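Could someone model nicotinamide-adenine-dinucleotide with this protein?
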Amino acid sequence: MAKKLKVGVIGVGGIAKTHFPGWKSSPDAELVALADPMGEVLKKVAAEHGVAKTYEKPEDLIADPDLDIVDVCTPNMYHAPLTIAALNAGKHVICEKPLAPTPAEIKQMIAARDKSGKLLMTAQHFRFDGRSKALKAELETGRLGDVYHARGWMLRRAGLLPRTSFTLKKHSGGGPCIDIGVHILDLTLWMMGNPKPIAVSGITQDRLRKIPGSFTPWGGLLPREKDWDVEEFAAAFVRFSNGATMVLEVSWLLHHKTTGEDMQMWLYGEKGGAHWPTLELLETNYKSQQHLNTTLVMSGGQEAHAAECVAFADAVAHGKPSPVPAEQSYDVLSILDGIYRSSAGNKEIVLE
Ligand SMILES: NC(=O)c1ccc[n+]([C@@H]2O[C@H](COP(=O)([O-])OP(=O)(O)OC[C@H]3O[C@@H](n4cnc5c(N)ncnc54)[C@H](O)[C@@H]3O)[C@@H](O)[C@H]2O)c1
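Reply:
Sure, complex below.
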């Protein structure tokens, strides 16, 4: 049996813990090192997961010659510098979403990847959810025909972690666009076949969090003025080079009926429509003049965060392409960046 790829994870917070089961179950990889500046937390997590090597400085993990794969699970602002350093050190890199908060940084990451000849993947776990895989497989048969319009939304009534790592742009890069917009946008573009976005018209809003007493059940009162400079809501209309269009809505704070989070997508094609996550398909029999509604059957599978790590190790081990290429994340961040620019300039933005 081939030698297993050795994995080091940088940042051992909430999301890293969802990656560990993937590395542990992968037939191609093993988790051997962790890095985090919080020494006590690092030691505790390493002991819990039986990981022998620990580094308080991420650059020391990156320099470890034993490692083949670096898994970046830090706050957003460190994604680009750590990923570029790891690629330059000859490691394959899987990096949490957003790959970086701006398209400019993703361009630099792509250049570093190309120079290194290593694989780079964005951890967009929703693509590895059983419901997503079932719908994507059906779309690839051509059952819906040409998908020419989509609607995607990820809306929370009052759902955010009220910490400056989320609410200050210098730490997060943006509000719900960057935090959760990347999820629904990445998933929708992937279902549409990743058409090239060419223009975006968008608006961001910042209203409810300013109301005295504004709170989230996820952590109490919201940060005040000096600790919040990001949007709380955004809506956008996107045009693609193939003539397709998309409407996007994202929020952390909105008077929208939901328990926790409402994440949905509609895809509209010439032969049919589809809804995620219910997997309903809407088709038409023109001969009998009937509308037909069916629901796709989904098979189970591994939890999506774990599954994305297994897929990355499989790609590295067997010379396959990146399961989530950085070019697709560049398009996602170009749209989100376009929303900010469109809102600030009150006009449609043509994307490069
Ligand atoms: N895919 C998903 O479902 C999902 C969900 C939550 C978060 N995320 C993403 O995961 C990333 C981390 O979020 P989280 O919720 O785990 O945050 P977290 O605060 O729980 O953990 C982040 C960890 O990174 C460490 N850290 C900070 N700066 C570092 C540095 N320079 N080098 C090394 N370690 C550093 C912190 O000490 C902390 O332990 C973010 O980019 C976020 O967008 C993804």
